[in-house]
Amino acid sequence: MDVTRSNFKQTIPLILDAIDKSAFLSIDTELTGLQTSKNMSYRVFDSLQQRYSKFKDSASNFQILQYGICTFELQDDKKLLAKPFNFYLFPRSNELLKTDLVFSCQSGSIDFLVNHNFDFNKTFYDGIPFMSQEEYSIKKEFVAQERDDIILNEKDEDFVLPQLTSIENWLQTKENNNWKLEINNAYSRRLLYQEVKKKFNGFVQLEKSMVGGKTFLEAKCLKIEDKSLETIKKDNYLNELDEQFGFSRIIKEIINKKKIVVGHNLLLDICHTYQKFIGQLPNDVGEFKSTLNENFPLILDTKYIAKSKLAAEIESTHLGDLFEITNKLVKDDDLLIKCCDGFNQYSEDSNKFHEAGYDAYCTGSAFAKMMFSLSKKENISMADTLKQNYLLSYSNKFNLMSSIIDSFNVTESESKVFKIKQLAISATKNNVFLLTDFVEPMNHSQIVETIPSEVGKVMFTHSIDSNNAV
Amino acid sequence: MDVTRSNFKQTIPLILDAIDKSAFLSIDTELTGLQTSKNMSYRVFDSLQQRYSKFKDSASNFQILQYGICTFELQDDKKLLAKPFNFYLFPRSNELLKTDLVFSCQSGSIDFLVNHNFDFNKTFYDGIPFMSQEEYSIKKEFVAQERDDIILNEKDEDFVLPQLTSIENWLQTKENNNWKLEINNAYSRRLLYQEVKKKFNGFVQLEKSMVGGKTFLEAKCLKIEDKSLETIKKDNYLNELDEQFGFSRIIKEIINKKKIVVGHNLLLDICHTYQKFIGQLPNDVGEFKSTLNENFPLILDTKYIAKSKLAAEIESTHLGDLFEITNKLVKDDDLLIKCCDGFNQYSEDSNKFHEAGYDAYCTGSAFAKMMFSLSKKENISMADTLKQNYLLSYSNKFNLMSSIIDSFNVTESESKVFKIKQLAISATKNNVFLLTDFVEPMNHSQIVETIPSEVGKVMFTHSIDSNNAV
Question: May I ask which residue range the UniProt record assigns to the signal sequence (chains A, B) (predicted)?
């Protein structure tokens, strides 16, 4: 189901209900770009912190144009009902809220979307707005100005009370000139704002003015119409703020309901999800892991599971292949996955790859079939398979592309076989690395085994001592 | 006329002919954004260098999605024939050329284009590519590798000649093993590449390999098919390079033909034009002025002309108003401007503002009518009005928005009434400025007159000495 700004509001109940009923849900994103510069391209020897920093840079600069969510409801132990939603997103500017986002596009990524028939007009004309929870809170606080009242001490009262009396007198006599006082101290002004608002129930408003380096407060008596205008303005602001929060409400629901989230090679999608809908990604990878875990306690990466747990059955973990292979591995008779009426009737022949809703559907389907296949041997029901207890050993580990590190483990600290340092021997020899801090002694062939084939030929020219190798 | 990648090639002759025949041409751009951050917003007291740096930042980060060019051909002294072209641009990525541009978008600017019915799909799916002359030259040189040959001295020959003989022997005996030699010196390798290529007419190719820190050259005998494959690859590269140069060819033609270029408030358009189609904008505003002048010797800004030369007749210089007012100021009987058959039949009622071709048309029309109005008093023919001699006093001066500086003058150095320095007195008093280096003594009211009304109230709190004011 395509969801745009035009039908978002009316579709919210359907979306929330689908999330609520789901055993798990899968996600996917379509992005405006991947790498802001050549420095940000992945290197096989990236440390976990380096790789995460590249993801953070990407998620901070590029935009999500389409967000796919597919919910999967367990109907009986042999049947899952899928509801794929395809959200078009765009963070419109808003004058009242002072939002006007600058984001990056990479022409190669735009070309990629063009090759998969992406409708840019739909996203720019009719995309659903969004705003991170963090920004939403700041803006809400800004308008509410819910600062705690200062409790007046004796000295404060000595200053404030005579002024209140003076304003009261002015109100009663209604002289032509407004009540006006020079107050150069900011604290004194704040006291007076606070107490005038309380005493006159908002009908007297103090306005600041500066003349010749001096600061004055001037009292203005609001008419009933003016006062309601103030309230209307505030209501407008809050309404627009809620509207701008938009799609983030859906992500908030997934977090609140502690739903199981599935994705294919999804670390970058998750970084984008965090940055766009929760708040600024932290700089430190350790901090990211813990705060991610608080928000999404159970994330599963189908690429990681396929590679690490079902390598014998699954020769290619490309999403298209994985979807096809898992459909052959587990037949419909054993586990039927069907799209709900009223939703896009995706199937194996749909071939809508890189439409976020379809990719989410394929990912969730492959996940369910892989888990069925894994738990079958242990004779565990599908309902129990999809519970936290069973999933725990597969969860919170992400596949890492082009990396010597086998996975990004959210709940454990970085596994250290050895540390790798790039040696700056000379500008032309930038593929020379120092391996150091070995956990246990390793010989050359053991080291070579840890290095993925894509690195190419590895050569050891020197052994500095028993613990280091170059 | 809309021009996209689909019809660009076949339309080139028509475009070049229109440029060639034109008395002048007008331009306009539609952009993905204006300001990358709040720091880049315009301040009334920006120095010329500061303002230019903001324009450079904008032109370096944002993209042109649509470029309008309208040529105006003088048919007789009372008639101009307009040919408005509306180019959709997009710098596709190209694997062979290794181009993959990252650019910025500002959501407010996207919203602006949405409000004017911009077709994003047309630009992303079918935009004409482009590449700056600078980048084109670098890439062309890269494939040509036209390094001058080294002239061999006696010592060089002593090294090279025995190797050539050795390779010749190997070629004749055709042993199983390839000819191979350890050569660790880069200069020696270059000599051998050069002489082997010459002697064997490209049929023997040397390939470098490194083993255990040693460098080897290995000779490979190319078959006729392989050799032509090399040539085909190079031809492919050059063809793709020319294709990617795309729209830049049109700008190059305008530069080569030294055409008169007209725009409305066009300094930012000109910065984009320079950055995208000529090369990196220089950092220094003075350098920009001189290199801009070399490329475009005669640029005219309709907003500057309207404000500075026809202020009495033209009360609003907004493009829509200017177009309407100039159409009333100079009737069709005096000067008829007509769109050529086969082109969009723009007229006063078209209301296609912010379609680049239409804005260019309106700008050119307003320009012609203003110049008619200005030269009429002097009884000068339209043909003579549109010549360099007459236009010189109006040209190469750009309007500057929200600025104390009245214009950006390309051919003169910055006029200094006084220098303005922002005083960092305190974080809360950031509107305090030091005026210094007065060219001639000015009193308070004279200074106030130089400050545009949009600055708001100006107050002088101290006079430090006769030459400085705060």
Answer: none
